[in-house]
Design goal:
The chain is of the alpha+beta class. 24% of the residues lie in helices and 34% in strands. Bound molecules: adenosine-5'-triphosphate (ATP).
């Protein structure tokens, strides 16, 4: 097992596209590290560079103590799982698993032991004698994961491995992957554009945007204090409300009159935006204490809660998370109140977190 260090990675494709501008990552031995970002932000290119499937233009990659810049994929001792299963269609599960080990020339008893171990971990026992066309999508993906496991690599690299599964299976597989990684303790780098997946899986998450890392942190850190306006708008479902504010009389006040507790260390003389999570706001009866006038634009039912979209102070898209028991009709005049602690605050011009 091994940690992975990526230093000043830059990748420009032959057609001139810069996919990775500058990426530094320090991934711990045994860590489940997630790279998260929108389509085209450079996650896959970074992962493929770690795997050796893509040569970086500049920058260094170390796996354990080894500088692997010049090593072909097969010599990097990593296993990669893609969103497409890529099983051999003519081989039964047990032979799909054994294939990479036989290719390495391992003795037969060792091959059998390792296949049995991987089958146990991924619960493939009843499927060992089936060919891929008799496996469901989820089963095929479990076989693909097991095939990565049998090699006992120093690290797993996963590129959106659950994308092609339906929602329920995806949730199950997520749990399996997390459990498996914990049990094996093997370093894993996991690429996704799905923030729920990132939040539920990662020990730490790197948020990428336009070929750069915007933030690295635990799921809680990334949720509580997004490092930039980009991260604030990307993390959370629905994401934070971004509300223009001014500092006046030691208070943080929005144009529509909403008063927020200012966080310590607020800079002066800058244009500021407060990031307020939908759960830190409350829709009230009009005129309720501490509320400002607002109007319900729409309500989105999300199972056990409602997201109210309200128009307040000229901003028509303020989102508020409320329990199902609180009901207001569309167009109803309501109050809007802040219930949380101090919000996070961003500089409008630099787009960075300032307090
Ligand atoms: P996605 O989630 O859509 O896979 P990503 O974050 O993984 O996106 P990359 O696949 O790394 O992003 O691509 C980053 C940028 O590089 C994109 O603009 C993409 O179009 C471009 N790109 C990727 N591969 C190549 C290539 N072989 N040649 C030229 N440009 C490429």
């Amino acid at each position: 097992m091994a940690g992975i260090e990526v230093t000043a990675l830059h990748k420009r494709y032959p057609d001139g596209t810069v996919a990775v501008e500058h990426v530094d990552l320090s991934i711990g031995d045994g860590e489940l590290f997630v790279m998260l970002g929108p389509s085209g932000c450079g996650k896959t290119t970074t992962l493929r560079a770690i795997a050796g499937l893509e040569r970086q233009t500049t920058g260094d990659i170390r796996i354990g103590d080894t500088l692997v810049n010049d090593l072909p994929p097969a010599e990097r001792d990593i296993a990669m799982v893609f969103q497409f299963y890529a099983l051999y269609p003519h081989l039964r599960t047990r032979d799909n698993l054994a294939f990479p080990l036989r290719a390495e020339g391992l003795p037969k008893p060792e091959v059998e032991d390792r296949v049995a171990e991987a089958a146990r971990l991924m619960r493939l026992g009843p499927l060992l004698d089936r060919r891929p066309n008799r496996l469901s999508g989820g089963e095929q993906q479990r076989v693909a994961l097991a095939r990565a496991l049998v090699r006992r690599p120093r690290a797993f690299l996963m590129d959106e491995p659950l994308t092609n599964l339906d929602a329920e299976l995806r949730a199950d597989m997520r749990t399996e992957i997390k459990h498996l990684q914990g049990e094996l303790g093997t370093t894993m780098v996991y690429v996704t554009h799905d923030q729920v997946e990132a939040m539920s899986l990662g020990h730490r998450i790197a948020i990428l945007n336009k070929g750069r890392v915007e933030q690295i942190g635990t799921p809680l850190e990334v949720y509580d204090r997004p490092a930039s306006l980009f991260c604030a708008a990307f993390i959370g479902s629905p994401p934070m409300n971004l509300i223009e504010v001014e500092v006046a009389d030691g208070k943080l006040r929005s144009k529509g009159g909403l008063v927020l507790t200012p966080p310590p260390g607020l800079p002066r003389d800058r244009s500021l935006v407060a990031g307020v999570r939908p759960e830190a706001l409350e829709v009230t009866e009009p005129g309720a204490e501490g509320s400002v006038p607002a109007r319900v634009v729409s309500a989105e039912w999300l199972g056990d809660e409602i997201i109210y979209v309200v128009d307040y102070g000229g901003q028509r898209d303020v989102r508020v998370r409320m329990p199902l028991t609180v009901r207001f009709a569309t167009d109803a005049p309501v109050g809007l109140r802040h219930t949380g602690g101090p919000p996070v605050v961003y500089d409008v011009n630099t787009e960075e977190l300032v307090a």
